[in-house]
Design brief:
Blueprint (H helix, E strand, L loop, with lengths): L16 H11 L3 H14 L1 H8 L3 H13 L1 H7 L7 H28 L1 H6 L1 H6 L7 H24 L5 H28 L3 H25 L6 H4 L2 H7 L9 H21 L23 H29 L1 H8 L3 H11 L4 H33 L3 H5 L5 H31 L3 H13 L3
Length: 442
């Protein structure tokens, strides 16, 4: 059991927070700016794109009319609350920018809490003059710093479309980020594994997206109960550039503060390295006969999660195919963009090819994460006892690489199957495109 330098009930439980915060920001001096820059660029580039697509008031009015009757597209991007470029920007990328901020925040918090405990570094730090809750506070402050910088960039970049709307959108996206930062702080207290903490928090984010999508599909004004059950639904109901509802920010702030208080309470009731949901011990005798079987045992949860996600994404995108054609209508600029992304064989085929290509790019993230599991096994010390037996390095690495490459083909095939289910026809060609996306064929 670790002995802290301060008493649990004293006012010095935050001692050393400033030093740990500076250390966290120094460690994340590359990761945070990349996440912030990518998110900001996605949002700030949207007004120019939308102006080229819907440059006249008549085209924007037609877009609003189409969205009122197109439930599948509302499920993807939410309802439209205004026809200004600022309102269309918030509609088109607001939810996704909030999701990116949430992912950034949960990664930062888990990295500086559960990751540190799992590696043993936190116990070394806690043996000095460091308060019991200093590490958790530093992690949350690091996430808050990143979200504050993102909010500032978005507000400054979109001020030309209206300062009030830009401020609302920036604060809303940062608020969603902090909601999931404090949620990750809770999950990090409950689990022993940093990987599981990231996975569970990401699963909650996915559930929030699904709830919002289901609610927006049912109503055209964001008033569904399902929409209000999701923090992403709160973000869209903030309505930047469309008679802002500032009181929605109080929901985001209240949720973040409440979850933060729960995380602090849990952090004070456990020892370092322990958790409220301890890992279940394995069998007394081994059941894995090869390095490949071990790789599958370690990565099967990830493969299952990605497979389910890609299948559901395929169903959603397939369901919105006809709606996308109706939305584009006679807009030649939008038609040209889809055809450039997906080919010249008709708008529907171009849309399907573009969406499958986008999923193929996302599948690359799975491959990277799967291959990096090799590095994680080495740094955690778990690879050494495996390699100490009659297991060669190439055979050990080949097991993980097989899961990475085979898993990417599997999730793309399931995405194609989802497209077939959602679209309801042309099953063979859709599956063929998904397979080609995973294999990079012509």
């Amino acid at each position: 059991m670790t002995t802290f330098a301060v008493r649990p009930g004293s006012s010095r439980q935050l001692a050393g927070t400033g030093t740990l915060l500076r250390f966290a920001l120094r460690r994340d001096r590359l990761m945070m700016p990349v996440w912030i820059a990518v998110n900001a660029l996605i949002v700030l580039s949207m007004p120019g794109t939308l102006e080229s697509l819907y440059g006249t008031p008549a085209e924007r009015a037609d877009l609003l009319r189409q969205m009122e009757t197109n439930s599948s597209l509302r499920a993807m991007v939410g309802p439209v609350f205004g026809d200004s470029l600022g309102a269309l920007t918030a509609w088109r990328v607001g939810i996704y920018a909030g999701a990116l901020a949430a992912v950034m925040s949960l990664l930062v918090v888990v990295r500086h809490t559960r990751d540190e405990e799992e590696s043993g570094r936190q116990e070394l730090v806690a043996s000095g003059m460091v308060g019991r809750r200093a590490s958790l506070t530093a992690a949350l402050l690091a996430a808050a710093t990143a979200n504050a910088v993102l909010a500032l960039l978005l507000t400054a970049g979109l001020a030309g479309q209206g300062v009030t709307g830009a401020l609302a959108l920036g604060l809303g996206i940062a608020g969603v980020g902090m909601v999931f930062a404090t949620m990750a702080a809770i999950v990090a207290q409950l689990t022993e594994s940093a990987r599981l903490a990231r996975g569970l928090t990401a699963a909650v984010l996915g559930a929030a997206f699904v709830l919002r999508a289901a609610g927006d599909s049912a109503t055209d004004d964001g008033t569904s109960v399902l929409t209000w059950l999701s923090p992403l639904g709160w973000l869209e109901n903030l309505r930047p550039y469309a008679d802002e509802r500032w009181w929605v920010l109080a929901l985001l702030a209240g949720a973040a503060l409440l979850q933060g208080a729960v995380a602090y309470g849990l952090a004070g009731r456990r020892d370092i390295g322990m958790s409220f949901l301890p890992t279940r011990p394995g069998p007394a005798t081994g059941r894995l006969g090869s390095a490949g079987a071990l790789a599958w045992r370690l990565q099967r949860g990830g493969v299952l999660g990605w497979s389910i996600g890609f299948f559901l994404a395929g169903v959603v995108y397939g369901g919105m195919t006809e709606g996308a054609a109706d939305l584009v209508g006679d807009n030649e600029n939008a038609r040209e963009i889809f055809q450039r992304m997906g080919g010249q064989s008709g708008l529907t085929d171009a849309f399907l090819a573009a969406m499958i290509g986008m999923l193929g790019l996302i599948a690359a993230l799975y491959i990277v994460a799967s291959v990096l599991r090799l590095h994680g096994e080495e740094t955690s010390g778990r690879a050494e006892p495996v390699l100490a037996n009659a297991v060669g390095r190439l055979r050990w690495a080949a097991g993980h690489l097989l899961i990475a490459f085979g898993g990417s083909a599997l999730i793309m095939l399931l995405a194609g199957l989802g497209f077939a289910v959602g679209y309801g026809k042309e099953t063979g060609p859709i599956l063929g495109r998904a397979w080609c996306s995973s294999r990079r064929c012509g």
